[in-house]
Amino acid sequence: MTPTQRADQNTDLDVGDLTRAIENFNRYYIRLPAVQKLSFTTLSVLDTLALSGPKRLTELARTEQISQPGLTQLVTRLERDDLVRRHPDPADGRAVLVHITDSGRKIGQSRREDRGRHLIPLIAQLTPAERQAIAAALPALTRLAELGAEAAR
To answer: What is the pTM of this model?
Structure first.
């Protein structure tokens, strides 16, 4: 199926339209000015750990789509900055699990709050119907992200 095809013949959801809308929004969203300048990869690692708990380096490298040596260097920097900690894996003493610290969690929370402040004036310019449409789409978009995460495992 090409991205311009319908996701299901019984719907009017055009996957190409959805892809373009998500990409256009992401292009804006990831470039919002940030109080704290951190790389996209750093933020992604912290977010992954905050959402899904401690991970082995190999698993993080796979989910973040970066090389293991690159991830090891990043985790070393994050550990130095007290954003993550490494602990022995109780299931395998030879391996370590990377855990997010409270400081690492605060970065994600602060970034979401900061981005929210940027979105509020834009959302205020939408019509009530547009705001309702976005609110109605949130459960489906959340589920779509969950399905994508499950498929990546």
So the answer is: 0.76
